[in-house]
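Summary: Need help interpreting a holo structure output

Steps to reproduce:
1. Submit the protein chain below together with the SMILES for NAP.
2. Request a joint structure prediction with the ligand placed.
3. Inspect the structure token block that comes back.

Expected: a single structure record containing both the chain and the bound molecule.
Actual: see attached output.

Input attached:
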Amino acid sequence: MGVDRLCFGTSTFVAGRLRPEKESEPGMAALHAAVSAGVRLVHSNPKLGTQWAVRRVLDSASTADVSHLVKAEVPLGADLATMRSRIMLAIEESCTNLGVDQLRAVTVEIDLKRTQDQALLVNSQAVMEFYANAAEVVRGSGRVSQVIAYCHSPAHLAAASLAEDVHGVAAQYNVAEPWPALFLDDIERRGLQFVGMSPLRRGTLAAHPSGAADLTPLRWVVTEPRISSVVITMSSPRHLRQVIKAVRSPLEAPSVHELASAWLNAQHRHASPEGTGWSPADRLLSSYLPAQEDPRD
Ligand SMILES: NC(=O)c1ccc[n+]([C@@H]2O[C@H](COP(=O)([O-])OP(=O)(O)OC[C@H]3O[C@@H](n4cnc5c(N)ncnc54)[C@H](OP(=O)(O)O)[C@@H]3O)[C@@H](O)[C@H]2O)c1
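--- attached output ---
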């Protein structure tokens, strides 16, 4: 994998809603350097207040062929009018903030906090219809080429892969959350993309006890050739340089599938959490996973 499959994540790269006090210049310099190095995808969320910096950098960069992925969140169970207004708002706001007419993709996500009927979260038909409806709304906007279904759990990813008119699926994908690897055969067979988010798990996986950054977890992620894009946040040119070096040297002996299986086995040893809380490792797992004996079949 080279820089062509890197997607610049923007949730915290400059001052915004999540990091209002952050110094923005290093993050903007990182994005500028990323584009100069060949990165052509940027993922942003209009709700996080960082698209201003994306626009400022791209307006001053010499290339015009950068594409945007933007996030839209909708509660599961929302009626079609609500879904349409949430998605259209994300598209319109993003186009205005970024100064573009067209977006490459919307990454549609189930808004877990605002989903009133929690039982729907374990209803794979409802999840599949959610993504299919979202795809129709996005297509109807006339401003977006693709729909990527961002998934919180294995069960949701399995359901999203079946949804009509979805171009790809996305999930957090790193050594601590390797379960999407179990779906890559199926994703490839269906001709879908897979977008891996948070390869360093918000930076925690890069922290080495010695204080020096260790990007082996990123090298693990990019070992898998079927990952279309890896979305990673970088707030300094130094981190960008280290990331580019890491993605150019994937690990040699891919253990992607073995690690995912080990994670899954570990999850099965834990009882489902009690209460109304919901986590990717809960009971959703059991019903919708592909065959585990040999998921490469
Ligand atoms: N639901 C969704 O749609 C969703 C969910 C999760 C993520 N995302 C997208 O994915 C992007 C990435 O996710 P993320 O930010 O959660 O996680 P991440 O990219 O795995 O981790 C980002 C963290 O890694 C640090 N980092 C980067 N390069 C480093 C290096 N060389 N050495 C040490 N630390 C380094 C960054 O620090 P610095 O900032 O200091 O460089 C930042 O704190 C987000 O910006 C967002 O666009 C979307």
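--- end attachment ---

Reviewer comment: The two ends are 25 Å apart (CA to CA). The longest strand covers residues 67-74.
Status: needs-info
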